[in-house]
Amino acid sequence: MAIQTRYIYLLRNTLPVIDITMVNIVYYTAFYLTSDLGKSVSHEINERYLVVCNLLWLLCTVLCQLYSDQGTRRLETIYRATWRSVILHFMLFTFYLLFSRDIGFSRTFLLVFYGLLACAFVLNRFVGTSFQYLLFKRFNVTKKVAVMGSNETAMNLSLYLQHENTLDFHGFVGDEDNIYSENEGIAHDVFCRKLAEAVASGVNEIYVSITPQRMKNVKALIAEADKQCVRLKFIPDLGGSLPYPYRLSYLANQFPILTLRHDPMEDLGNRFRKRVFDVIFSALVIVFILSWLYPLIALLIKLQSKGPVLFKQIRSGRDDEPFCCYKFRSMRVNEDSHQKQATKDDDRITPVGKFLRKTSLDEMPQFFNVFLGDMSVVGPRPHMLKHTEEYAAIIDQYMVRHFLKPGITGWAQVNGCRGETRQKSDMEKRVGYDIYYLENWTGMLDVKIIYMTMINLIKGDDHAY
Q1: Percent helix, strand, coil in the chain (nearest 5)?
Q2: Which among 44, 57, 59 has a CA at the least distance from the CA of 18?
Q3: How far is Cα 382 from Cα 405, in angstroms, rounded to an integer?
């Protein structure tokens, strides 16, 4: 839960209205400007497709979290989410117009529209930044807060508050000893003095970091704060009792839940955004690449060896659910294909199969798995059921990687962990990268992994065989 301020509330509710109004103004300007340039523009773009443009903008801003509570807290996140939304909107709207064959498609209109839109957003965000600077520096609209306590949680909290530009951090109003009074029912003298100073400077909210078992000893503290008209917010200090970073949430706003592993994919919004990306990305690959590449590779495979074009293997998916994974067949048909990993200079691999594996083209049919929902473009690589059973018995946290959908490429693969696993340490290193990805997922991390994968394909990988 983020700290609420009037500025953030106002920004969250006015920014969407300003942006959608600007998108419509730019749209009409681009339409008439394109006509003035002597280019033919269908009236369908002027009428019916304006609605599509608006709906796609709203979808893009939701996917990029432009107007979310966290998205509007910092200027950097607003800028980043804005440009992501514009780029995604360009891709989706262009794709939509390309496949709407009942209208005359105008490249000039798109160039003018997105050129003007980019300029408009630059101006919009510049004005917004200037307005924010004016509010914070001249009119002092920030919320003044303070911290009480001297434990590790209090120190970390103070660092966070100091970096929030919508907050004005007053400082500390007492250390660990000042929280609990020497005389029952009477607040500590130091706290009373510092609280009065804080109130005089405009503080009306104080965050107190204490251990849960000491909550029963703060009645005097609460009474004194009530007298001074100050809200106290208690933050439990659990750092000394838990071995891992934790996250606190509530069930039915009543039962506190501690989660010891940060898992962004537990959030349905994140899963929805990742799934939308997977569907769009895999559809583009299937339509524009596999549509002509599939028959070509199929012909080469058939010319070199008897057997099916696709190699189908049951592998471990999300939550350890098995699924049928597709690959272009790179080996001669053999009885060990479902039990034995490919090794360097493996005599089962055909000449064309060697090329497919070296260039990773054998993995291309897995975009069908992505489109069907069994896999993701980015995620831990799926393993054979036999290997899952073996490694789960000897490697700690091995099954944690199955909290995610398996991927065509992953954080482990772009860091050199791909191909044959000869030793236990090889798999342990790979699992470490997979868990890091699970706990630190962002949309930009996926983009980075895809980019690194493309670079590795161009450079070549010694472990691809």
Answers
A1: 55, 10, 30
A2: 57
A3: 9
Comparison of pLDDT for 368 and 419, the residue scoring more:
368
Last residue of a domain, one of 112, 138, 164: 138
d(CA 256, CA 247): 10
pLDDT confidence of residue 71: 55
CA separation for the pair 283, 267 (Å, rounded): 24
CATH of the domain at 170: 3.40.50
Inside any domain, residue 465: no
What is each CA distance from 167 to 161, 162, 163, 200, 241, in whole angstroms? 7, 7, 8, 17, 30
What is the total residue count of the chain?
465
Q: Work out the average pLDDT over 21-28.
A: 91
The vertex-237 CA angle with 232 and 239, nearest 5°, equals 160
CA trace torsion 196, 201, 204, 205 (10° rounding): -90
> Could you please report the per-residue DSSP string of 245-278?
--EEEEETTTEEEEESS--GGGSHHHHHHHHHHH
SS3 463: coil
The pLDDT, as a whole number, for residue 36 is 76
Q: Is the alpha carbon torsion for 257, 262, 266, 270 positive or negative?
A: positive
Give the integer Cα–Cα distance in Å for 147 and 206: 5
**Domain range spanning residue 63?**
6-138
pLDDT at 325: 95
β-bridge pairing 255-259 and 231-236: unpaired
Report which of 78, 81, 68, 82 is spatially closest to residue 13, judged by C-alpha positions.
68
Q: Which tens digit of pLDDT belongs to each residue from 300-351?
A: 999 988 889 999 999 999 999 999 999 999 888 877 666 666 666 677 888 8
Report strand pairing: 255-259 vs 167-172: unpaired
pTM: 0.61
Confidence tier at 187 by pLDDT (50, 70, 90): low
Q: Where are the alpha helices (DSSP H) in 64-188?
A: 75-98, 107-138, 152-162, 176-179
CA 271 – CA 159 distance, rounded (Å): 31
Same domain, 244 and 309: no
